[in-house]
Design goal:
By secondary structure, the chain is of the alpha+beta class. The protein is built from 3 helices and 12 strands.
C-alpha cells in the first residue's frame, strides 16, 4: 500500500469515527472513560507528591520557634495565677490599712462598726451617686441611711441596699443638705469662721453655702474647711471633713452674705475604696 492510499484510508477512518460519535455517543463513552482513567492513574502520584511537598514546606515556613510543651504551658499558668494573687493581696492590705486609719481617727468606732467596700460604678443623668460592692448578702447590718466615709472624710449616705451592691448618694447631690461648721486650719489648732453653715449639693461634684455676715465675723477665704455638725448623722461622724472652700464672693441675694463654692474633700471618681458605718453599731 502506497503512502498516498494509506493517507486517504486514515482520512476515511476518521470520518467514520466522527459520524458514529455524532449519531451514537454511547459507543464512544467507553474509550473516553478508559483514556480518563489512564490519565488519572498517571497524574495521581504526581499530585500526591506535590501536595506532600507543599505541606512540608508550610510546616517549615510557619513553624513556631520553641513550640510550647505541656510543662511550659503549666509554668505560664502558675505565673499568671501568682501575679493575680499578689495583686489581690495588695488590694486587701490597702483595705486593711484604711480600715485601721478610720477606726483610729474616729473615736468610738471599732473595726466591727465598718464595712469596707470597693467603688464599682457611678450613676449617669446628673445625679451624684456611686455604687459599692457590698450588699445584704455580705453583711445584713448594712441599712439605708448608713453614713459612708472615704479617706477619713464624709462622702455620702446609703440610699438602697441590694443583694450584691449598695447605692450611695454623695454629698454633692442636689438633694443633700447638711449643717456644718466653717473652720480655718491654724498652727495651734483651728479658727472657727461660722458655726451655722448649711451645705447644699449642687450636682456634678459641687457644693455651695450661704454665710451671714455679722459684726466682728471673720470673712471666709479659699482653703477653709467645712466640718459636719449635724444631729441627723451618727455622733461618731460629726466633725468629719465635708469639703474645702474653693471660692468666696458677695452673695447675689443680699449684700450681708457671702456665697461659698465648696469642693468635696474626696473625689470619689479617683477613689477605689470606701467604708460604710453600720447603723447596728451606732
Amino acid at each position: 500500500m502506497t503512502p498516498h492510499r494509506r493517507f486517504w484510508l486514515l482520512i476515511a477512518a476518521a470520518a467514520v469515527c466522527v459520524f458514529v460519535s455524532a449519531r451514537r455517543p454511547q459507543v464512544m463513552r467507553p474509550p473516553r472513560a478508559l483514556v480518563s482513567q489512564v490519565i488519572r492513574a498517571v497524574l495521581t502520584p504526581v499530585s500526591l507528591a506535590l501536595t506532600s511537598l507543599q505541606t512540608t514546606f508550610n510546616r517549615f515556613l510557619h513553624a513556631r520557634p520553641g513550640g510550647e510543651s505541656p510543662r511550659r504551658a503549666v509554668r505560664q499558668r502558675y505565673r499568671n495565677e501568682i501575679a493575680l494573687l499578689v495583686a489581690r493581696t495588695a488590694a486587701l492590705e490597702h483595705i486593711l490599712r484604711e480600715s485601721r486609719m478610720i477606726s483610729r481617727d474616729f473615736p468610738g468606732m471599732s473595726n466591727t462598726a465598718l464595712r469596707i467596700a470597693n467603688v464599682v460604678g457611678f450613676s449617669s443623668g446628673g445625679v451624684d451617686t456611686c455604687t459599692l460592692d457590698q450588699g445584704w448578702r455580705d453583711d445584713r447590718s448594712i441599712q439605708v441611711g448608713d453614713a459612708v466615709v472615704a479617706r477619713l472624710a464624709l462622702v455620702g449616705r446609703v440610699i438602697s441596699v441590694g443583694p450584691e451592691t449598695s447605692s450611695v448618694r454623695l454629698l454633692t447631690d442636689p438633694r443633700m443638705k447638711e449643717n456644718a461648721w466653717i473652720v480655718r486650719p491654724a498652727p495651734n489648732g483651728q479658727i472657727t469662721i461660722s458655726t451655722q453653715a448649711l451645705i447644699e449639693g449642687r450636682g456634678r461634684g459641687r457644693m455651695a453655702c450661704q454665710l451671714d455676715e455679722s459684726i466682728n465675723s471673720i470673712p471666709p477665704q479659699p482653703g477653709d474647711l467645712a466640718l459636719l455638725h449635724d444631729h441627723e448623722w451618727p455622733a461618731v461622724i460629726n466633725g468629719a471633713v465635708i469639703g474645702v472652700v474653693r471660692r468666696v464672693r458677695p452673695s447675689d441675694r443680699t449684700s450681708l452674705r457671702w456665697s461659698l463654692r465648696i469642693r468635696p474633700r474626696v473625689d470619689m471618681e479617683q477613689t477605689y475604696h470606701a467604708a460604710i458605718v453600720l447603723s447596728s453599731r451606732r
